[in-house]
Amino acid sequence: MKNHSLIFILSLFISFGVSANTDDNEVDTVPMCNYGGWMSFFDSEGNCLPPWKSIVREDDGIADFGHPYTRKYSCGANGLFRCNPLVFGPGESGKGHCVSTDDKDPNATTKACLEMMNFEAQQDHIQRLSENPEDHAKYIGVAAETVRFCKKSDAEYCDELESMLTKSTKQLATCTDKTKLYQFLPYVITPVNQDEINQIANNLVPGFEAYMEDLEKRRDDAIAHNEKVYEDALKAYTESSKTQTMIKTLKANASKCLESSCFKKDGKTKKRTVFYHKGSKKYRKSATKSMAYCFRYVKYGMVGKDNYTKAKHDIPGKFAVHAGRSLERQGFTNLLNNPAFQGMTPKTAPVGAIIVYKKKGAHQGRPGHIEVRTAENEYTSDFINSRPTTVGGKRIPIGIYMKLPDDLDKQLVEVPNE
Questions:
Q1: Do 111 and 16 belong to one domain?
Q2: Are residue 196 and residue 223 in the same domain, yes or no?
Q3: pTM of the model
Q4: pLDDT recorded at residue 203
Q5: Same domain, yes or no, for 36 and 159?
Q6: CA 170 to CA 29: how far, in whole Å?
Q7: Given a cut of 50, is residue 384 above it in pLDDT?
Q8: pLDDT for 235-250, tens place per residue?
Q9: Any idea which of 64-78, 96-110, 251-265 has the lowest mean pLDDT?
Q10: Which of 392, 391, 369 is nearest to 382 (CA)?
Q11: If DSSP codes are grouped into helix, strand and coil, which group holds residue 294?
């Protein structure tokens, strides 16, 4: 597991100097401090904050340097401090060593942690880190930020802490698989000045720049391949004979009263009576007029004929908002549930997509709406609309359904580091 070409990354900061910047106008300040091995921040008066403070442990950037100092690391009493297990080793508890000290003083706590370490314990910890590339990368992050801090700080513990981290990191550089380490390195060093870190890593870590360039190319190739697979799948669905027949049927039916879909009221009895007569031109309706039978008309379109008995059997359900259940049984997929189509809207849905809406604020979304995008600016159900039927935002799309190939997953490739 030897790697003689991997230069100890802490020297990067020393070689570049602590004020290295990619922007001459940017003033580099000491962004972080080390408190008993834990990375922390300064308060307004320039004091290093205890790592258990909520403002520190809840900061997203702190997680880049390992676990934050949460309650589980408490030693259970004042005057006791848990040394960071990533830096000083896990101890017998696995959570790190507890030391007796003034736990509100970063000088006292860090010195106590350093005094607790011995050569044998340090060697055991280095061996553990060499076998865990992710922890090793985080250790490098802590070490690098500590060097930045100590170069500008007069903290009493800095010389000894910096020396320990430097020696350990140099030793680790000879016994870690660099390819595995590189996978974690960019994400842990440092959340403060990424441009600086990239410059340092790319220029001074042998093989790292080539690795990152190759990784980026493999990522781009995989993403492009998967996008093409999805693009071809959607195109195949849109152009399939079944989809084209559905679109044709839907558009033709939009100007018809189908089965019991059209009613009139008898002037005397006020009862609703069916007045649809098959083949009669008298009872045709406007193609742009809704009869409140969107789900019924979409069912007709899907079965390819005005046979409501077959439509009800093949695609059961009363409310449009629940149409997804029937569509999924027919082999359709809700594209909104696939990360590859994140951000798709009814306006960007492929032609032939079946769009299901719920009504904002209504109980269980009833009755909702369903329509098919039948052309670029055409949405059809029991009527034809030139835009998605959201009713001024009162309807929310909850499903955009299409059929995808059964072997789609086999055609996709894994995207590295995603």
A1: yes
A2: no
A3: 0.57
A4: 44
A5: yes
A6: 26
A7: yes
A8: 999 999 999 999 999 9
A9: 251-265
A10: 369
A11: helix
